[in-house]
Amino acid sequence: MTPLMNSMLAGVVAGVLSMLCAALVIYTARPAWVPLLVSYAIGALLGAVFLEILPHAFHHEASPEAVSATVLVGILIFFLLEKLVLWRHVHVHDVAGLEAHAHAHAHEPQGRTGAMVVVGDSVHNFVDGIIIAAAFVSDTRLGMVTALAIIAHELPQEAGDALVLLHSGMSRPRALAFNLFSSMATLVGAVIACLALQSLQKWVPYLLALASASMIYVAVADLIPGLHRRVDLRTSALQMGLIVLGVASIHWAHVLILE
Q1: Which GO molecular-function terms appear in the entry (predicted)?
Q2: CB-based burial of residue 231 (10 Å sphere; 0-12 exposed, 13-18 middle, 19+ buried)?
Q3: C-alpha to C-alpha distance for 248 and 69, rounded to whole angstroms
């Protein structure tokens, strides 16, 4: 099989398995579990960023300073985008009633969080497709190992993303549809990379950095503050344990596939 066919097959398999994993989480998780399982999602997001995505970005020819600066700029961009969404939300209501409106909606899930996760995950999956294609172009066996490694670390991350989508207020069918959209980005990235690999390679570290920025922002700015609403010792310990489990699942997926 040609590198293009191998890359397309790997992209389809990765997308289908990710979607099945997300569907399992979306349709089996009870509503009462979601606030606690968001802790796992935080760990999975941060684990994917600091154990997988950024190390890949730093291994490319781009300087660490340039990659780090892209992460910083990305976080600021997502901050401004969120501000714009909030500004638009505020200005469709009567300013005189804003304070009461804000208080009434203080504990509602924020749909923008789910949308930002989809954007970040789509960029990440697109870059995964580029990495798979680059490996298959170099060597078929290397491509297979790379594809397996990417699929292995995608599964726990997709489970975490699915929980974030539910937490953001999306219905189950809509959350699954968004997950399918982001999962198919792997196939798109693989096809485009095979057709224009040389011109895309130099952008890989910066795309990875932007994906990292979106995931860091969602975890730190949108999800972690919600955990502080309950400060009792039992809940705090459970939250910390699930965050660690999310990070560990990314690590184990990486280690197991390499060993």
Answers
A1: metal ion transmembrane transporter activity
A2: exposed
A3: 27
256 Cβ contact list (under 8 Å, min separation 6):
152
Q: Cβ distance 207 to 123 under 8 Å?
A: yes
Residue 93 pLDDT class (50, 70, 90 cuts): very low
pLDDT in the model for residue 79: 87
- 94 HSE (CA, 13 A, CB side): 3
Nearest CA to 50 out of 157, 183, 190, 164 is that of: 157
CB 108 within 8 Å of CB 169: yes
**Residue 75 pLDDT exceeds 50:** yes
Length of the chain in terms of residues written: 259
**Helix, strand or coil for residue 109?**
coil
Please give the backbone phi and psi of residue 137, each rounded to the nearest 5 degrees, phi first.
-65, -35
| Residues 194, 65: Cα–Cα separation, whole Å | 29
The three-state secondary structure class of 226 is helix
State both tokens at 229.
């609403």
Cβ pair 251, 52 in contact under 8 A: no
